[in-house]
Structures are given as C-alpha cells and as structure tokens.
Amino acid sequence: MNGFDYVEILDTTLRDGAQTRGITFTLRDKLNIVNMLDELGIDIIEAGWPGSNPKDEEFFKVVKEISLKNSKIAAFGSTKRKDVRVNEDQSLNAILKSDVEVAVIFGKSWTLHVKEVLKCTPEENIQLITDTMDYLREHGLDVIFDAEHFYDGFKEDKDYAMEVVKAACASKARTVVLCDTNGGSLFSDVKSITAYVKNLISCQLGAHMHNDSGLAVANTLAAVESGVRHVQGTINGLGERCGNADLCQIIPNLKLKMGYDVLKRENGLKMLTKVSRYVYEVTGMPEILGQPYTGRNAFVHKAGVHVDAVLKNPRSYEHVDPTLVGNSRIISVSELSGRSVLANIVKELGLELSKQDTTRCLEEIKRLEAEGYHLELADATVKLLMLKSLGMDPTCFKVIFWWVETFKSEGGLVSRAVVSVDIGGSNAVAMGEGVGPVHALDMALREALSSKFPELKDTRLVNYKVSVVDSEDGTAASVRVFVEFMSKDASWTTTHVSKNILEASLNAIVDGYVYKLGILESRSSKTQR
Q1: Backbone torsions φ then ψ of 134, nearest 5 degrees
Q2: Terminal alpha carbon distance of the chain
Q3: Which pTM value belongs to this model?
Q4: Considering only CA atoms, which of 502, 6, 431 is closest in space to residue 254?
Q5: pLDDT at residue number 375
C-alpha cells in the first residue's frame, strides 16, 4: 500500500473514445459527459482536437461556459508539421484559439514511424517536438507530451526512444506519457521499461495503454507500480480497435486495491457506475454485463451456495463492497436457487415464509423455468409470484377482454387496441393507438386505468425484448417477453411466456402495473406514514 500517493487521471473518452467504430457523440452528449466526469472528480478531460472538425470547434467555444469544479479541459494535437514554421501551424494555433489551460501533444518515439510515416530524419523529429513544446509553453499552456508507440520504439531502438522523452522533458513538459499505442506489450515489458525510464528522467511520467492484447488495465497498473503518477484511459474502455484502458477498472483498483489516492472529489468513486452506464446509453453500445466493478452482473449472485454464503457474509463472494463504486448487490432467482434466495426476497417484502411455503415457491419457480421462463432478470415477476403463493395477491385490476389490429393508412402503419378491465367490480373500456401492437395495447391499458390510478402517469416502459423458447416436443415454439419499467424513483422488470407474442406482452405489462400499484405504491405509503 502506498498511503495517499496521488495518481492523476486523464480521461480521453471524448477524444480517443470517440474514435471507436460506430460511435458519434453529439455536442450535447459531449457537454453532458464533461459535467459527469467533473462530478466524478477526473483531473483532466481530453476533449478533442480543435480545428479537426466543426463539432470540436463549437465544443471548445461552448465548454467555456461550464463552471467546472474539479476538472481541467485539455485540447489534443500533434507536433507541428515538418514543412511549416511553428507559428504558422494551423493545428497548434487552433489549440491556442481553444483557450484551454492544458495541451496534449503526441509525437513519434519509434524510428519506424519517424522514417516511414513522417518521412523525416530522427534529428528532425526531435526538433519538431522541441519546437512544438516551446511554442505552446511560450503561450502559457501546460503541455503533456504523449510519446506515441514508446514501448515498441524502446524495444527496437532504446537510445532513440529515450532521446525523445528526454527532449520533451528538457522542453519542460508537464508530463511525459509512455504510450503502448499498438496495445501489444506484455505486462513484464511494461513494468521493466517504465522502471528504466523512471530512473533516467525527472519529469512526471504517465501511461497510455491500448487493449489489443487484453492487457490495457493490467499494463496501466504495472506502470503505476513502476513509478507512473498520471494515467490515461476511457470510460468503459472505448477506443480504436480493441479499445483503451478502462478507467472504470483502473480507478477502483488504484484506490481500493493499491492504496493510491485518486479523483479530486471526495466520494467521487460512488459516481463510477452511474457514469459508466450513462456513456453506454449515449453511445448506444450494449453494456458489458460482466464488466468489473460497474457491470450489472458484477455483484449478482445466482447459485444457492453462493447466495447462502453472501447473505451471511458478503466478503465470502464479493471482493469489494459494491456501494463503494455506486453499484449494488443483486440476488438472482432461478431454478438453481435455494431457500436463502427466497428468504432474502421475502425479507425485502417484510414477510416471513414457513418451510412449507418456501418449498412450494421453489417448486413453482422451477416449474416455470422448465416452461421457458427466465426469472433471474425479472424481479417484479418473482415478487408477485411469491405473494400469490402466500395468498396475498396484490392484483387490483383484471383484463377481461382485449383486441388489437394493425392497418395501413396514408401516414403508414397504425396499430389500434381496445382493452376492457375490471377494477373492483367496475368495468372500464379504452382504446389506444401506437406505433406497433404492443405499444397500442399499453396505451389502451393505461387509458383504462388512468382515472382510478393516476399514480401510473410517471411510469414508463423503457425496454422490451422478445426471445424464442424452443419446444422439446416439436410443437410450435413459445416466446418469452421481458418488459422493463421505470418511474421517478424505481425500475423493475417483468416476464411472461406464451405461444402468442401479444398475450405474453400484455401479461408482462399487466404484471408491471400490478407491481407498481400493489407493491411500490404500498411501500411508499407505509414509508410516508
């Protein structure tokens, strides 16, 4: 452990992360992410390359209007072009125009790139670096120098790679960053090479790792062990090819496992899961459920033996407390569940189960899973199932008739549904239209319930998934539907299986509203009392 030795974090989600294939950030996305990274407590936000595109130019104008509490905005660029004077280089002048405090400049440290990409001599490359550094520093900027391809360059020509970082250091770089740009270096190489550099230069050292060998996080931590005190990465490991080092893993490992102080905001670590999931949302990328620390499955317990142990002592199957990173423990229900799983859910509901009740519930769960249900992802369905098995059915309305059709109009396809419900002996009938039959059914059901249950107004369907359940006897397959709901202070999921997709969908939606009215609202009213 290293006490409170501080490791500075540079986030490059908006620059290197934006180079992920298939990802485009809008200006609003970028500004929202800046605010979240600032709230997290990130030291430096590398936000883009001024002058490279109109969106980044506009961003650097608008971001000045944001009052940041913890983070500094950095502009990215390369060393000057070899055929122009430094004061005439458009890229460097765009950085000055962006009016930032910090510039991140990358330069070549591998002779292969110097000779075959830049098409210049090694000596000319050194001059490009020093001219660029001096020019930006003369205009008042702190300059971080990214020694691109450093580890590959070191292995091929150690003396020249060292000459590059020494030149940057001599030009008073704020930090010299050793980059594994191709992501091919192994842990042992990173550790030994970084330690070698640390012994020979006085500048603060940084690390920028790519994940092409699956080692970006490990290599970053190895670099820190060898003396690096500035690390670069992206939220969720976004980046070129296989991505960059994932800050959602690096930050908690540094803080919780290695004893380093990170993040400018006290308790900022608790924001990590929120930031990770927001970035997934705005990029449209599917979440990695098993992502360490912040993934939705990172602290999920399914097998009966695991659940029994973790409920007795969380340390038995959890390496850290999930709340430290803003995540939560989930006890999953399935055909593998034991009595302790149900006991935990019953405790959440404020009830008690007899041994006979527990056995009956477990048998029903296993029967449903054999029919094609997948209950571990449907918390609301499980709780409704348990209440019904105890004779405590919270159902407050019943659908007695429904009808839906889809037809083509001048404006395109339209779906229309009619739903009739019984609410405490009174009948309500309503019609709804939607972009599809399931949407229309939901709109009709909401309308039928709205006068009696206005508390449903803040409830939204936020996700809908369908999968096919193969039949073992060769008859027509069933479909399994998941519907995720959200209100202002809660989210929950229901599931149903049927040979008819509309029946499965309607039943899952009904369960979602029953759960909201019969469990969440009941719990809320008890809390208020």
Answers
A1: -65, -40
A2: 48
A3: 0.74
A4: 6
A5: 73
